[in-house]
Design a protein that fits this description.
Number of strands: 9
CATH architecture of the largest domain: 3-Layer(aba) Sandwich
CATH class of the largest domain: Alpha Beta
Distance between the termini: 36 Å
Bound molecules: flavin mononucleotide, iron/sulfur cluster
Strand content: 5-15%
Oligomer: single chain
Structural class: alpha/beta
Shape: globular
Radius of gyration: 22 Å
Length: 423
Amino acid sequence: MEQVLFRHNRPGRCVTFAEYRAEGGFAALEKALSGMSPNDVQQTVIDSNLRGRGGAGFPTGKKWSFVPRDLPGPRYLICNCDEMEPGTYKDRVLLEANPYSLIEGMVLAAYAIGVAHAFIFIRRGYEEAAANCRRAIAEATAAGLLGKNILGSGFSLGIDVHQSAGRYICGEETALMNALEGRRANPRSKPPFPAVKGLWGRPTVVNNVETLANIPAIVANGAGWFKGLARIPGAAGTKLFCVSGQVRHTACFELPLGTTLGEIIDGPCGGMLPGRTFKACIPGGASTPYLTREHWGLPLDFDTVARAGSRLGTGGIVVFGQETCMVAATLNMIEFYARESCGWCTPCREGLPYVRDILARLEAGTGTEEHITLLREHVHYLNNAFCALAPGAMGPVEGLLRLFEDEIREHIVRKRCPLGGRQ
Ligand SMILES: Cc1cc2nc3c(=O)[nH]c(=O)nc-3n(C[C@H](O)[C@H](O)[C@H](O)COP(=O)(O)O)c2cc1C
Ligand code: SF4
């Protein structure tokens, strides 16, 4: 199975700059700067069907094309490494193993969009990943692959690493820009979208770590090659799936898009823990609705998972066994979101703690039928909040109501958790 993002990985340590170079690292940058126009690079990324790996799956080349070409003045590129979505740790694993693909991808992206200054916005706590990025920036600059007049092409780029103060909302791209500007990290209204009016009011592209780290291989090998990596038509490339929960091996695996859920669990995860049977999972971080046993053969790709009523999201898979109480699992996630609501808009600030309290009552065996109705209403209300945090928070609640209504009702009828409460 071809590895793109993990191709340069070494067991137990980060690849070195010399090793990355010796294995063809920065060859894509040399190729682009010596023979491709910025438009050529952008078109290659459009043709590759690369979709954003930060959660929403938006087509990357299309996003770049929204940046006004002829507007004078600065424009910015931001790499989003906030990664606070529960269940998600792929960007950390990637940067601890290899920061160079990201740096090379950022230079290529900046060249395509016409950016002279870029930022890596990285979560506090990701100290090793941040140190790797700083070291890679220094090494690439010393080698003439970053900084002024890169490889004598006349194109220049500086990259700064910014460590976040640490709130989940800082990963939302407009809140991130406020944080980077030194303001309170509230989301901004959209439109205008960042590609038109972003950081300091200038056109800005925000992309995820994994998205940008794919760019060198796409430029080096071409759009057709990238599309051919996926297992199903319409999908393109590989995906990092970071798995946790009740499987034998919890780790981050690079697999072709379109690999089925069952193949991941029975394959690299080594199956369920002894004595456990698969009940459900979240497929892409805590804001994605559950998949169940009926989805065992589902090819994991953005469109297929959406058609199954969930989202591929970040590829952060959390696996639950039969003895897991799904009310309790959902309550765990809602507790996180209620705490991380930025408080800017009323539906989310007041609604998420209310939903948390309802779930806590149901779990404790003091809930009523009316609470099921209230949960349903809140799935609807919270879709109209100011940013995507609140609808995302209600993803598992919506899944709970759709797939495990019987289990909720059992809590009400028996006046206790039928599975013995939170694990
Ligand atoms: C509450 C919230 C948190 C987010 N956190 C992250 C994050 O940690 N990393 C990330 O790449 N995208 C995150 N996103 C999505 C970003 O807003 C943005 O869509 C993404 O960085 C774009 O990159 P992509 O197009 O490469 O996927 C978050 C969105 C929301 C609503
Ligand atoms: S939905 Fe929540 S996180 Fe988003 S702006 Fe409103 S209060 Fe803040």
